Amino acid sequence: xxxxRRKIECWPDDAAVTGDRAASASAFPAxxxxxxxxxxxxxxxxxxxxxxxxxxxxxxxxxxxxGALSSSDLMRALTIQTRxxxxxxxxxxxxxMATEEAVVRALAVQHQTTILQADSSRPDPRLIxxxxxxxxxxxxxxxxxxxxxxxxxxxxxxxxxAAHRPELEAALGLVAMIVISESDLHQAMIxxxxxxxxxxxxxxxxxxxxxxxxxxxxxxxxTALALVVLVGSAVVAPLASFLTLFGIxxxxxxxxxxxxxxxxxxxxxxxxxPAPIAPLASTSHRREEPVDRPPRKPVVSIMVPLFREPxxxxxxxxxxxxxxxxxELLDIMLVVEEDDHLTRAALARSRLPxxxxxxxxxxxxxRTKPRALNYALNFARGSIVGVYDAEDAPAPDQLHRxxxxxxxxxxxxxCVQGVLDYYNPATNWLSRCFTIEYAAWFRLILPGxxxxxxxxxxxxxTLFFRRDILEQLGGWDAHNVTEDADLGIRLxxxxxxxxxxxxxxxxxANCRILPWIRQRSRWLKGYAMTYAVHMRDPVLLWxxxxxxxxxxxxxxxxxxxxxxxxxxxxWSFWLMLFGxxxxxxxxxxxxxxxxxxxxxxxxxxxxxxxxxxALSARDHRFLxxxxxxxxxYFPLAAFAAYKGCWEMxxxxxYWDKTTHGVHDDTSQPAVVTA
Length: 674
Prior knowledge:
This protein is an alpha/beta fold. It folds into two domains: 2-56 and 111-203, no CATH class; 218-271 and 297-674, Spore Coat Polysaccharide Biosynthesis Protein SpsA, Chain A, CATH 3.90.550.10. Helices cover 51% and strands 10% of the residues. The chain contains 26 helices and eleven strands. It has helices at residues 2-9, 44-51, 59-66, 71-83, 88-94, 100-110, 125-131, 133-139, 161-172, 182-203, 216-236, 238-272, 313-320, 341-349, 369-377, 398-408, 429-451, 467-472, 483-493, 513-534, 538-565, 567-571, 574-577, 583-587, 590-614, 635-650; strands at 141-147, 150-155, 175-179, 300-306, 330-337, 356-361, 384-387, 393-394, 413-422, 463-466, 497-507. Strands 6-5-4-7-10-9-11-8 form an eight-stranded mixed beta sheet, with helices on both faces. The protein has a three-stranded mixed beta sheet with strand order 1-2-3, with helices on both faces. Strand 4, helix 13 and strand 5 (330-337) form a beta-alpha-beta unit. The chain starts with a helix and ends in a 24-residue tail after the last helix.
């Protein structure tokens, strides 16, 4: 072992290394070139000694003897370890009882190996590619260099090295273990495979299920042809053209209304159904049964994308700090664009706790939230991965409830979606309408979709995934500006379920008209692109979703787009109310006009009833009078739909960023009746 240690420590400095390794991950050069070979020789018995040490001394004892840990902190950490499924080193670092450097030194002593100084060398990218960057990061093992017939593998988790040895040796041959800190491992990976990781973050979803191959020119040609046909038919047969479009939009309205009724009624019945009462066990012949310990909780990684939001960063840290999930099992990742220096500086001033870390995302021409999430997913520690938005204030017990739902669900439960609400509904009329809309969507419609067995289009936040399933599907489509809705459909296509969780996250309602239109145009553009992507092969989509979910997909996505794009046709009937007449007034019999008016009236009454039912919570009842004004709220989305269609031609992947923190009521508690 002595020979191995001396050889490792005597490696020469790598002249190809540039940049300050003490800085953040963003300081590494974008290099994917192969590192020059280094002449390092290890004897076989040294490999065995480094990789298969004998009896190990307790980590806590090593830290205690070195003076890096107090006895009281050790006892506290051991107490936590008895109830949580966490390694001692992780507990010590999460609670600030010991530094990462001290734990790494103690791990090296415990496993009778040495510490790799990452600033004196860099890994060979050719070895990394034998496993792939994502797999290396998932294992916490980074192939560093060849030393004769042996590959030196740096690991941040030496206690798990033996479990990964078969996979490592299958790809690399004989391996020897050395210890590295997790932060140094991540920085070394970025320094060697930055460009590749950036590319993978943008292309990890299969091409046939992604909109990255979107042909904007083809779409513009088809749109132009459709407009030519529409204008030509309007000139040749104006009445027939109007009746055709009117029939299309009325059909979409009717089917959409039926779908909303079915979802809302299903959810309301579920809410009123009493919970089943477990039968009482007979006590006449009761035997003492051993009490099973509750299952250990998993590590949960939460990704929070931020972009140009320095003002909201301190409040975000405080709100996430209210989560009651065990700190040693909590991994908060603040995902920030590399060149967003203002936000990164604000986070640095916020004194992040040990269980929060910043993940800088390398620069790229594509700058979307899903791309950032894909990149950060490589560095997640948890088996469950969650997503919050920058302005979110989740319920404190939310992670406990999500973990419990996954434990109760089957293996096909891939995603848990929480309820979204707003902490500024009283700001103005627009915020009130936005709150009413979200109350109906997240408290009645989406839960109803779930219970009806339909595909659930996800919201962009308060999402929790089984990491293995998420990675199996390739994560998020980096080019889709409604990556959440798209992912919900892809989960359904591959046989996985999404469930709604009765826990609330508060957000900031976008309550300025122009920003609201920009945000809604992004959503509708994403809806259109998601529909186009999944309808590339309608027969395959039918087979994967089944008839009921396929029709639900058509009504939800295509029907929504039709209603907003053809909304002016419906608006034209308001002319009759003001005595201005209508082209159909003379073309249709009176009974038909009465039927149309009745249909419109019934649709409005149904939507009003659904919205009023969604406002039954005590915190929402003051909004009920404002539900009548939604008739003037939704027309704004028609303008957003036209803007979205135009962007599908000129900038299909442009992410129209929503500014947060404008009406951020920090006095509002982070708990709302679910």
